[in-house]
Amino acid sequence: PGQYSVTTGWYGHRKGSNAMTGVWASYRQAPITNSIACIVGRDARSNTRDGTPANTIDYDGHRWRYQDYGLRYFDECFLLAANAGANIITPYTIGQTGDNYWLHSVHMCNTYEWITSNGTNFANDNVGGGVRSSRRSCMVGYIDN
Taking the model in full, what pTM does it have? Predict the structure, then answer.
């Protein structure tokens, strides 16, 4: 997906049988059975895969590896995900609940998004260049099977 959502792509947030799709400044979702491009990011500072998530959960026919790192700046969460070979996800993605978790966005130019409203919307920081994000909850994960 392109900057400002030239095309649509999956975010790392799912709630039930729908998942969030990338369109900047608007919460949208689609059935998880749709074929849509993925939004994947990799932190250039990461040159390791030493952060394998410690927790596992079976959800919707898949075994997930995940880790909740608590409150982090977005850049910290992004690096933790890269080091784990994972994506930034939300608890809803693995059948749990919890708002105020970071999302990876289609637009990463000094804007930082997190999930809100019982997993049905998002909010964002829109900060100047060189300004760090606020601190939000950070979860990373991937399907292990």
Answer: 0.80
